[in-house]
Amino acid sequence: MSSSPDPIHHEPLPAEHHELMQQHLRDENLPEAVMPAVPHTKILKGQKALVTGANSGIGKAVALSLARAGADVVVNYVSRPEAAAEVVQEAMRWGVKAFSFRANVAKEDEVQAMFKRMFEEFGTIDILVNNAGLQKDAPIEQMSLADWQFVIDVNLTGQFLCSREAIREFKRRGIRKEVSCAAGKIICMSSVHEVIPWAGHVNYAASKGGVMLMMKSLAQEVNMEAWGTPEAYRELMKLIPYKRIGEPDDIGRTAVWLASDDSDYIHGASIFVDGGMTLYPGFETGG
């Protein structure tokens, strides 16, 4: 039985990154940067999560963060199984269940097999993190159709296939009140290049722009269908895809998160705590 990890998590920067950052701050006569150190709480205890592309980088960090928060985790990968196994072992140090599964998210049969195995092991899914993504760059006149399709298939179609399987399970199972007030959560990793053009990376930028509108369209559609509303809210709820009225505590929880170190890297962003009103619900039935 391994010892319990430190309840305060402070992930060190790679040495070369730390030195570059600190040198820049010295050059600009700015104070030394302090990375956030956040206490761990089991706010996701009992929930079942799947993270795609989770054997390295952002996907690994997300999978381990979910484990630290109490969720059982599926670590998806497509190469380097030994790295995925290391993530599983580290996740299990936090007292949760975890396993790895090799699946190319661009392949429908492999995605369905992955979800089938997850349901066999964990019973359901509560959290999907669509993280898997890649680049294959070239000037547009030199970009092959194969390179275009490869990036679109993984970055966009992969998120569609995984989201579809998760939503099917959310609707089949409904809300598990003992673990969450929502039937499920889908987090779609994108990029600043969903809004910023990127010459020489047309396939990547197009895939990320697609992810943004796919995610918003799914949120509009699925929240509309998944749960009903009280009669007194009917007219107002036509404007709110999530189908409940906002409460002051919704803003309070968001304010606490924004004031905490958990949100340290969010700067200059508008956060709409609106139940999806900015998803233009007038188009939820196809316009």
Describe the 3D structure:
- It is a single chain.
- This protein is α/β, with parallel strands linked by helices and 287 residues long.
- The chain has a domain at 42-227: Rossmann fold (3-Layer(aba) Sandwich).
- The chain contains eight helices and seven strands, in the order βαββαβαβαβαβααα.
- It has helices at 15-27, 57-68, 81-92, 108-122, 145-173, 202-226, 234-237, 248-259, and strands at residues 8-9, 38-39, 48-51, 72-77, 98-102, 127-130, 185-188.
- The strands form two sheets. It has a five-stranded parallel sheet with strand order 5-4-3-6-7, sandwiched between helices. A two-stranded antiparallel sheet has the order 1-2.
- Helix 3 (81-92) links the parallel strand 4 (72-77) and strand 5.
- It is globular and about 55 Å long.
- Residues 224-230 have low confidence and may be disordered.
